[in-house]
Amino acid sequence: MSAPSESALPSSPRSRRSAAIDEALRAIGSRELEGKGAEAVLRWGIDRFHPRLTLSASFGAPEGMVLLDMMHRIEPESRVFVLDTGRLPQAVYDLIDRVRDRYDKSIEVVFPRGDDVQQMVREKGMNLFYESLENRRLCCRIRKVEPLRRHLVDFDAYVTGLRREQSATRSDTPVIQMDEANGGIVKLNPIADSSQDEVWQYVRRHAVPVNRLHAQGYPSVGCEPCTRAVASGDDPRSGRWWWEQDDTRECGLHVDEEEQGSGI
Ligand code: SF4
Q1: Distance between CA atoms of 60 and 210, rounded to whole angstroms?
Q2: Are 237 and 249 in contact (CB under 8 A)?
Q3: What residue's CA is closest to ligand 1, atom 3?
Q4: What does the pLDDT look like over 122-179, one tens digit per residue?
Q5: Residue 230 resides in a domain
Q6: CA atoms of 182 and 144, how far apart (whole Å)
Q7: Domain count, the chain
Q8: Which end of the chain is more exposed for a tag (fewer CB within 10 A), N or C?
């Protein structure tokens, strides 16, 4: 019996993966996904990358919950993870369990390395982040940036809830990009061009579960010691690391290391 021709062989997971990455690079170059709408972008990503596509959700912002709902409707086995820094408020854990029950979905909870956290608090104290920008970035690096990087090793693409109007550092966020800091994987930001009103309209229309602290003046909920409520009309990001200057308020998850200047 003669060997099957190469074109008759089923493509291997590796070749399918590299074909999908090539398509992503083409989409970045042509900007063909800009303006398509969040659901179309998610469908594009799921068709090419599932199950090596995951959603990064903080369970502290409505954006992540909207994307989780959209992805679940398209692909019930779609994947989602949350970084548990060890300093999150109870409201985040309660929401994780609510979402788990509502969607019958397993949530991948990613923890920092215990040894790193132990060494950090032994040397610098439990609340080091209030003492200097360097300390705050060290804490974010150990509790968020490293776990994110470690978790994403198993994926070819991930989804975020970044929106351009959230802050000056996010104003150029494209709908699709390569994330070199996290292993050169594809990063989809399907609601980059959505407004806050559009996000909340989706939440109400589909009764999407959201963090209960939003109703108490928290536009987004991060670690408990680094988040506070904001007054109506104030910059939504002003409740995060409020003791710092405006231009340093990022945790490093979505900022280039050099741009952040943290030496991470
Ligand atoms: S947000 Fe605060 S507690 Fe959380 S990782 Fe960053 S510095 Fe540490």
Answers
A1: 8
A2: yes
A3: 223
A4: 999 999 999 999 999 999 999 999 999 999 999 999 999 999 998 788 889 999 999 9
A5: no
A6: 12
A7: 1
A8: N
Model pTM? Answer: 0.89
Nearest CA to ligand 1 atom 5: 140
Task: Give a yes or no: residue 233 inside a domain.
Answer: no
- Asked if pLDDT for residue 79 goes beyond 70, the answer is yes
17: domain CATH number is 3.40.50.620
Taking the C-alpha atoms of residue 134 and residue 186, their distance in angstroms, rounded to an integer, is 29
Task: Please indicate whether residue 223 is annotated as part of the active site.
Answer: no
3-state helix, strand and coil shares in percent for the chain, rounded to the nearest 5:
50, 10, 40
Catalytic residue, from 139, 140, 223, 251: name it. Answer: 251
Residue 92's domain comprises 13-217
Domain annotation covers residue 167: yes
C-beta of residue 87 within 8 angstroms of C-beta of residue 223: yes
Alpha-carbon distance of 75 to 260, in angstroms, equals: 35
In a domain, residue 32? The reply is yes
Q: Which of 146, 227, 251, 262 best tests ligand 1's pocket when mutated (most atoms within 8 Å of CB)?
A: 251
